């Protein structure tokens, strides 16, 4: 039975916000339009049930598609930014952040993960190899801090970035479906129906989707930057023991037993 909520993306907060919510937004146009058009031919409760059914089922499908597309475009997004912010800000050649700030971040990452990020490109190494080291260290940092009690802000910003990335990935689909809904309403008028509610709903969704889609490229980058800032800020908290501290605690507990 657990497979049902897992498929419907209802198992945890990240799945609900980053996967289900983009699907709900993409599906709202077809659902409202279908409900309003059916209301022209049937009772209000039949129309309401149809709208809810279309919204729920379409949201599940579009949510899974948005998640898949979001992961697929992530690399190209990072390339357009010059790399993910967690890598870009720790590069020796980076000028967005001060060397003092980067030094604090490197120290925190080493304390939490035990991995050393070079402050300059070592002799015989390349900038690409330094990027790989940074990527490995920040990946280990994410795994270490995941689900920690005092890392709730990190989880919140991760959900926000996942939502923005996935909605960005299906923004054109969102706008296209809204435009198709408006076209369907125009056809209904041609057939001498009077779907005023449907044209109002689909038109509103079309305008809203266009406005949001134009802002999404900047919004998803801001969300990525916020997540990177939170990741480094949580790593600098004094509450997270280093790997050496963990080993010392394990050895002490073994000695006591």
Structure description:
The chain has one domain. The chain has helices at 3-7, 13-39, 44-81, 85-88, 99-113, 127-145, 152-169, 171-190, 196-235, 243-256. The chain is elongated and about 75 Å long. It contains ten helices and no strands. 78% of the residues lie in helices and 0% in strands. Helix 2 crosses helix 3, helix 5 (99-113) packs across helix 6 (127-145) and helix 8 runs antiparallel to helix 9 (196-235). It starts with a helix and ends with a helix. The chain has 257 residues and is mainly α.
Question: What's the short version?
Answer:
The chain has 257 residues and is mainly α.
Search tags:
10 helices; 257 residues; elongated; 78% helix; mainly alpha; disordered C terminus
**Helical stretch tally:** 10
How much helix, percentage-wise, in residues?
A: over 70%
Mean pLDDT rating: 86
What's the alpha carbon Rg, rounded to whole Å? 24 Å
Strands, count: 0
Oligomer: single chain
Number of domains: 1
């Amino acid at each position: 039975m657990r497979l049902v909520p897992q498929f419907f993306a209802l198992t945890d907060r990240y799945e609900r916000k980053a996967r289900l919510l983009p699907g709900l937004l993409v599906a709202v146009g077809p659902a409202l339009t279908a409900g309003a058009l059916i209301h022209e031919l049937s009772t209000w409760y039949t129309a309401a049930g149809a709208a809810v059914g279309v919204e729920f089922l379409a949201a599940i499908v579009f949510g899974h598609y948005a998640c898949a597309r979001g992961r697929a475009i992530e690399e190209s997004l990072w390339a357009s930014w010059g790399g993910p912010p967690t890598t870009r800000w720790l590069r020796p050649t980076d000028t967005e952040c001060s060397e003092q700030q980067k030094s604090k971040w490197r120290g925190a990452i080493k304390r939490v993960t035990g991995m050393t990020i070079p402050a300059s490109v070592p002799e015989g190494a390349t900038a690409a190899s330094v990027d790989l080291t940074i990527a490995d260290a920040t990946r280990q940092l994410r795994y270490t801090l995941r689900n920690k009690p005092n890392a709730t802000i990190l989880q919140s910003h991760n959900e926000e970035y996942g939502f923005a990335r996935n909605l960005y990935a299906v923004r054109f689909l969102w706008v296209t479906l809204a435009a198709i809904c408006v076209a369907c309403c125009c056809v209904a008028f041609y057939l001498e129906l009077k779907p005023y509610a449907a044209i109002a709903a689909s038109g509103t969704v079309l305008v809203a989707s266009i406005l949001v889609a134009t802002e999404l490229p900047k919004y998803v980058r801001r969300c990525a930057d916020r997540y990177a800032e939170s990741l480094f800020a949580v790593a600098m908290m004094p509450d997270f023991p280093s790997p050496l501290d963990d080993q010392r605690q394990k050895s002490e507990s073994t000695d006591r037993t």
